Amino acid sequence: MHKINYGISPQFYCDLTVILVSLATMQKVTIIGSGKVATQLALGLFQANIDVIQVWSRTSENAENLAQKVQGQFIANLSEISNEADCILIAVKDDVIHELALEIPQGDYIIAHTSGTKLMQELNTHKNFGVFYPLQTFSKTKSVDLNTIPFCIEGNTELVEHRLFSLASKLSNDVRIVSSEDRKKIHLAAVFACNFSNHMLTIAEDILTSSGNNLSILHPLVNETIAKAFLQSPKKAQTGPAIREDQEVLSEQMQLLEGSPEYQKIYQLISDSIQKT
Amino acid sequence: MHKINYGISPQFYCDLTVILVSLATMQKVTIIGSGKVATQLALGLFQANIDVIQVWSRTSENAENLAQKVQGQFIANLSEISNEADCILIAVKDDVIHELALEIPQGDYIIAHTSGTKLMQELNTHKNFGVFYPLQTFSKTKSVDLNTIPFCIEGNTELVEHRLFSLASKLSNDVRIVSSEDRKKIHLAAVFACNFSNHMLTIAEDILTSSGNNLSILHPLVNETIAKAFLQSPKKAQTGPAIREDQEVLSEQMQLLEGSPEYQKIYQLISDSIQKT
Predict the structure, then answer these.
(1) Shortest CB distance from A270 goes to which of B199, B212, B240?
(2) Which chain B residues have a beta carbon less than 8 Å from that of A139?
(3) Are B143 and B38 contacting, i.e. CB atoms less than 8 angstroms apart?
(4) Residues near A18 by Cβ (< 8 Å), separated by ≥ 6?
(5) CA-CA distance, A175 to A222, in Å (whole number)?
(6) How would you list the strands of the sheet with B151-155, edge to edge?
(7) Which residues contact B268 (CB under 8 A, 6 or more apart)?
(8) How far apart are CA A185 and CA B213, in angstroms?
(9) Residues near A29 by Cβ (< 8 Å), separated by ≥ 6?
């Protein structure tokens, strides 16, 4: 972690500054973006009595709508970003973060992106920059309780880190300082745990509907499986024909999947992997 | 579905019998087994004021313990099974169901197994037989609310089916008549939705612990992912780099997995499958 050097100040003075400044709340935030993450963060900040002073988005109409909801100002151009902002949160698609950061005027504010995978360094043309990553899947309309969501924070200086940490703490009880490298690993883990689990549900739904059933029959079982995995650890909680090495069921289920070589491959590979673990 | 022929009785008389007999509660149940399913079913029946009159298990000590909990009689030999039983539930490992069924004396009772994969016909040496399959993962100690658990029922006659349906309805609000064939498909879907999703969590935990984090950071995200999948359908709810066709993140994540060719294979195969869907 970088430490800033205040020149003439000795270390204890630096630390004191960090503490004092981080105690001072970030009161004014500008939101860049109007998608799911931007919307839920803006609403969350507004509810936490943080001023969302401006909202900008490539899609002006969405930005106007969001600005209205959080009683902020809609701006059509990035050049209109106010110097009064303490923090500018860039909540847009990964691949446009860097170019937008270049368009944002230099200022005393902190610029932070909300991506799980992009390096903090994407923003390093600015003086104060960092990451403000909420580890959650958002919808535009379904509101989420931000309070329990882990926020992964990173800053280019200790001071920036403290201020972003303090801002996130207004929204959530679970705020962590996480390096770009570790954040990438957390994001990768989330791909397995969430995106891939969700795809397993897609396949399950496909199998069920082809036999006239529907996915809802599995709801209690899936809920209990997830609850157990987090209670005991998934390794200990593993059940099913693969871990039991029940060859009869394994080959019978491979036969049932005969119509879909793709599902057979997945079935084989994951069953093998369960047995290796 | 089979229909029984009462010889001289016309169809309406048959139907009336079915209705009347199924209205008569099954009051006495014998449990074969003392594992997780046997334990939770016995406790559930006991709480629903059904007499669990006898308990038998290969492990006598466990059977004795369970019998005590449900105020039933422990029996050391299957030959001691009482003719008073209305139903004998065989809740044991799949591969011993058939041999145990052969050892159980013939009687007027209904014999049903609780397996997700075994055919009802495993029990066809008896007069009245069926399936009583609770679609849930059980622990011996963690009690589960049976009330919302889907019970898949099958019977060799309509009468048997009605009586098993009626018994299951004492435990749960979600009881369904399901053929052996459909039950196998439901079980296969459950392997994907639960066993394989759980393995995705195992891999996620592995990735997280290797970078000094732990699985709990993903708990809110996984819960929300599952909730969304059942609310919208998993196909619609799919997120992540694969569905976005984000080649940059996909290849970066493959690189992060370089130490584990097994995880790379899984990552590649499931990402491809998501893109095909």
Answers:
(1) B199
(2) 228
(3) no
(4) A158, A159, A162
(5) 28
(6) B73-74, B51-56, B28-32, B87-90, B110-113, B128-134, B151-155, B175-177
(7) B254
(8) 9
(9) A45, A50, A51, A52, A53, A85, A86, A87, A88, A89, A167
Strand (E) or helix (H) holding B54: strand B51-56
Q: What type of residue is A267? A: Y
Q: Would you state the structure tokens that stand for residue B113, as one six-digit string?
A: 């197994």
Going by C-beta distance under 8 Å and a sequence separation of 6 or more, which residues neighbour residue B259? none
Record: contact B252-A117, CB cut-off 8 A: yes
DSSP string for residues in A48-63:
TT-EEEEEE-SSHHHH
Residue from the list A186, A199, A243 with its beta carbon closest to the beta carbon of B208: A186
**Residue B138 in contact with residue B44, Cβ under 8 Å?**
no
**Partner A contacted by B186 (CB < 8 A):** yes
Give me the residues of B, 106-125, that contact A with CB < 8 A: 117
Nearest to B221 among A135, A202, A257 (CB): A135
Q: Which residue of A lies nearest to B274 if distances are taken between CA atoms?
A: A199
Whether chain A has a CB inside 8 Å of the CB on B137: the answer is yes
Tens of pLDDT, residue by residue over B151-188, are: 999 999 999 999 999 999 999 999 999 999 999 999 99
The interface pTM score, or ipTM, of the predicted complex is 0.88
**Structure tokens of A165?**
């940490």
Let me know: does A220 contact B151? Beta carbons within 8 Å. Answer: no
Predicted confidence (pLDDT) per residue in B191-233, tens digit: 999 999 999 999 999 999 998 999 999 999 999 999 999 999 9
Using a CB-CB cut-off of 8 Å, the residues of chain A touching B118 are: none
Cβ contact B208–A216 (<8 Å): no
Per-residue pLDDT of B131-141, as tens digits, reads 999 999 988 77
Total count of residues recorded for chain A:
277
Report d(CA B156, CA B120) in Å as an integer. 8
- Tell me if chain B has a CB within 8 Å of the CB of A215: yes
Residue with tokens 């970003």: A81
> What sign does the dihedral B264-B267-B270-B271 (CA atoms) show?
negative
SS3 B106: coil
A183/A178 Cα distance (integer angstroms) = 6
Q: Write the CA distances from A136 to A145, A173, A187, A190, B56, integer angstroms.
A: 10, 14, 10, 9, 48
A89 to chain B, closest Cα gap in Å: 21
